């Protein structure tokens, strides 16, 4: 399992992460140079992953949309990537982001992990890192939406103190997650 360094501080990016079995990747901010990698990451998703992430089948990610997703809008949020490899061989295997809306104490949270890299702890690493970054900005809670049958994501949210409710008339679930339950504790 990947584990975020404790305590995780906003200035710790990029940071190298490893499992006990030797798998390694880098946690870093999503950057404008990642447009091609993000498009490739999107196109690698199964129909089920697209439905779980977006709530519907999204046919493609245009270059313009990819460019807007990697643009650094640090005033309203943060986007992180877990990246395998280096240079031309680098590929995104997970992304997460939060976006602050009208209420500066709340942010919308979203992340997706490549099908081949699930059960490595990537979603938890992203949740903990994004929580630390959001908490440093005064955000107190996340909101997120997922499908009712996305048990992996729901279990992570619930494990970290999330409260779930069904979205009327849909297969969707809305989650409210206090940041305090998501920030990994420092060493004892």
TrEMBL record:
Enzyme class: transferase
Record's keyword annotation contains Cytoplasm: no
UniProt xrefs under Gene3D superfamilies: 3.40.630.30
InterPro entries: Acyl_CoA_acyltransferase, GNAT_dom
Segments forming domain N-acetyltransferase: 25-180
Keyword Ligase: no
Keywords assigned: Acyltransferase, Transferase
Signal sequence coordinates: none
GO molecular function: acyltransferase activity, transferring groups other than amino-acyl groups
Record-given protein name: Acetyltransferase Pat
Organism this protein belongs to: mine drainage metagenome
């Amino acid at each position: 399992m990947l584990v975020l360094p404790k305590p995780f501080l906003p200035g710790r990016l990029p940071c190298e992460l490893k499992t006990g079995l030797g798998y390694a990747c880098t946690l870093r901010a999503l950057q404008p140079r990642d447009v091609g990698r993000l498009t490739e990451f999107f196109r690698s998703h199964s129909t089920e992953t697209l439905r779980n992430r977006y709530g519907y089948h999204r046919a493609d990610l245009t270059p313009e949309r990819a460019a807007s997703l990697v643009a650094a809008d640090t005033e309203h949020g943060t986007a992180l990537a877990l990246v395998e490899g280096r240079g031309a061989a680098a590929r995104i295997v997970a992304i997460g982001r939060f976006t602050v809306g009208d209420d500066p104490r709340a942010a919308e949270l979203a992340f997706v992990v490549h099908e081949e890299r699930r059960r490595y702890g990537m979603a938890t690493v992203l949740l903990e890192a994004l929580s630390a970054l959001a908490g440093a900005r005064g955000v107190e809670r996340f909101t997120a939406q997922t499908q009712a049958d996305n048990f992996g994501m729901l279990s992570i949210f619930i494990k970290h103190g999330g409260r779930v409710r069904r979205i009327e008339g849909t297969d969707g679930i809305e989650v409210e997650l206090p940041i305090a339950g998501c920030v990994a504790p420092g060493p004892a």
